[in-house]
Amino acid sequence: MEKRFVICVKDKYLEQILNHAIVEAGYSPISKSKDDLNNAFEAKVATLLFISLDFVDKGLWDSLTVRREGVFEVAVACPISQVDEAGKLVEMGMVDYPIVEPVRSEVVASVIRSFLKGCALHEEIVKKEGIIDKLEAENAHLRMELEKLVPREKLRKSIPYEVYKRVSSERGLFAKTYKRNKEKSSS
Question: For the chain (length 187 residues), average pLDDT per consecutive 10?
């Protein structure tokens, strides 16, 4: 799955810091305006969105609320005076990574590593679920084939009672004869 990093902030200085931190971590960011951001939500690309708390409005949070799990994650940069507000957003599940300003490149690199590890785990889960689905389908197919080969209940019901009774009595006769012959041979 393709991965990308989107920076969506009003403050040009913060944008430069985030750009520098992402590049320092060995990745290339994509800067987006708020208008282009809505198109980013439509793409099925694993995206880590870096935004500043002052950039947030109702429309953006509505878009973030309906984001697809495992595809979109949000890192919010906030001044230390707004940490409580960012914490509430984390509790509500709207923000995955709060970053307190001043933004340090080590923190951004840590967020990126965590995001990439989450993406890898998500891809692994999807792969395993695909394998499980295939195995369940194969299991169901094999059970149907087994039912075709050994229709036990249907076979018993389709044999007329007289034949079933005669075979049972012959089995009993064979068992008695075998027992008598065994007793004679052992004596």
Answer: 67 78 76 60 68 67 58 73 77 77 79 82 88 94 82 61 67 70 74
What 3-state class would DSSP assign to 51? strand
Q: Tell me, what's the pLDDT at 154?
A: 60
4: Cβ–Cβ under 8 A, 6 or more apart, which residues?
30, 45, 46, 47, 48
Can you spell out the DSSP letters for 94-141?
A: S-SEEEESSP-HHHHHHHHHHHHHHHHHHHHHHHHHHHHHHHHHHHHH
Q: Residue 101: beta bridge partners?
A: none
Contact 1, 119 (CB under 8 A): yes
State the architecture of 3-128 in CATH terms: 3-Layer(aba) Sandwich (3.40)
Show the tokens assigned to 154.
Answer: 């249907």
Enumerate the domain spans of the chain.
3-128, 154-186
